Amino acid sequence: MKNKIIETKQLCKTYILGKTGMNVLKNIDLEIYEGDFTVIMGSSGGGKSTLLYAISSMDKPTSGTLTILGNDMSSMTEKKLSKFRKTEVSFIFQSMNLLHDLTAFENIAYIGYGSDSKENVNKKSLELLEKFGLTEEKDKYPSEMSGGQQQRVAICRALIGNPKVIFGDEPTGSLNSSSGRQVLDSLTNINNNGQSIVMVTHDLKAATRATRLLYMSDGRIYAELNLGKYSSEKESERKAVVFDFLKEQGW
Length: 251
Hints:
The chain has a domain at 1-82 and 198-251: P-loop containing nucleotide triphosphate hydrolases (Rossmann fold, 3-Layer(aba) Sandwich). Helices cover 35% and strands 28% of the residues. It has helices at 48-55, 78-87, 104-112, 118-131, 147-159, 177-192, 204-207, 235-248; strands at 4-17, 20-33, 37-42, 63-68, 71-72, 89-93, 165-169, 196-200, 212-217, 220-226. The strands form two sheets. The chain has a six-stranded mixed β-sheet, with helices on both faces. α3 crosses α4 (118-131) and α3 (104-112) packs parallel to α5.
């Protein structure tokens, strides 16, 4: 039986707009499991990114409980929460958020400094660059790299601290088809090596990489599809299954 790494009970998120409250997440009960590639899809405005930010500790829910890696997040001080975000989880953004005045190597390494010796961090940064086919981009600045290369640097940066869970908010959303596939291949490979991933996407191709697909609408999770591990040989078959599932949900 898989270990639960994230659990929510009656999780809610409400935004106050003037005198009106907007309930974006509505009493969500959810379990995320170790080693899964969990993908969240759904209708526009259905709460996908809000849920991702809540269950990653990037944003606080309005009510309900959230447990990540056995930690009750509501009882965590800001100091402990800051350390938790740096050592236990990591986040990949659609916009990459690389520092433009740092090279690819520096963008990765600076995140690791302080958690290990500089020598070890530098060594691991170089190993990650090699693993993701970025050795020649080591000394390039973000402006000198393609979108796909920048996003792979962002993945390396997310991995430098050995996080137990990686969260991704539309990580292929701003990339062309070729670059998007490279990034998905990278994420699939690290998941196959045991890394837990939770990702929001609107892209059917990205959804086929999921071991588990959740569908959201109107602030609730309405359905899920278990796909097992991705295989490129069965990509067309998986895509058809995912498409039929999404069509049933009114996607």
